[in-house]
Design goal:
Elements: E1 6-7, E2 12-13, H1 23-33, H2 37-54, H3 60-67
Antiparallel strand pairs: 1-2
Length: 73
């Protein structure tokens, strides 16, 4: 089975071609974090930083919503 990983520099999912993190990858990231919201937030912040470098055409607000906005409070 293929993991839903990002294709860089587009940051689309290699499997389903949705914007990454796609719905399936978000679910697996939550499971991998084993309830540690801090771990998940730090991981996604790293992806956010990388995406900002790869996608200067997208605003930080758009990327924030995509990479960190789904984490909730």
């Amino acid at each position: 089975m293929f993991r839903h990983e990002p294709a860089r520099p587009s940051w689309c999912c290699r499997v389903c071609d949705e914007e990454w993190p796609c719905r399936r990858r978000r679910a697996s990231l939550r499971a991998e974090a084993q309830g540690s919201r801090i771990h998940l937030a730090l991981l996604m912040a790293g992806y956010y930083r990388q995406a900002m470098q790869d996608r200067p055409d997208l605003t930080p607000v758009v990327l924030y919503a995509r990479f960190l906005g789904w984490l909730g409070r």
